[in-house]
Amino acid sequence: MPGRYYEEFAVGEAIEHATRRTISEADNQRFCDMTMNQQPLHLDADFAEGTQFGERLVNGLYTMSLAVGASIPETTDGTIVANLSYDAVEHPNPVFHGDTIRARSTVTDKRETSDGERGVVTMHVEAFKIVEDGDDVLVCEFDRTVLSEKRPRDGE
């Protein structure tokens, strides 16, 4: 199990996630269809051409979902009880079809639950568009709070 138990998170630790994804037009179209989001800025090339962006944008919730998904193997895979919240979501730069996204999580807080059986961990997650010159562009950031299992005690 690659995920971390509560005790394995350290406040201030930055975790670079290995999973990356290049977003296709089909990815964006399917996400919009599944979520019933018919915003023409995501789906209508003619409409989007007339905007300040000049082309269709990838749905911001898809970008956020990719960042969460990319973070799971190194953080909560198999050790999470529940996602508790996503807060302070921002999309400072656009994402377009063909962009490749990577993510980084920084542990900002952790505390045991009142019964001491589990732990609450908050991470600041950042999604970046990979660019050729190596100066990747921040495209989404948010705080993710999870309820995490504690490491099993011997004999459990």
Automatic annotation (TrEMBL):
It comes from the Archaea. Gene3D superfamilies: Hotdog Thioesterase. Residues 11-123 form the MaoC-like domain. Pfam families: MaoC_dehydratas. InterPro entries: HotDog_dom_sf (IPR029069), MaoC-like_dom (IPR002539), MCH/BMMD (IPR052342). CDD domains: FkbR2 (cd03451). PANTHER family: BETA-METHYLMALYL-COA DEHYDRATASE (PTHR43664:SF1), MONOAMINE OXIDASE-RELATED (PTHR43664). This is MaoC domain protein dehydratase. It comes from Halorubrum kocurii JCM 14978. The lineage of its organism: Archaea, Methanobacteriati, Methanobacteriota, Stenosarchaea group, Halobacteria.
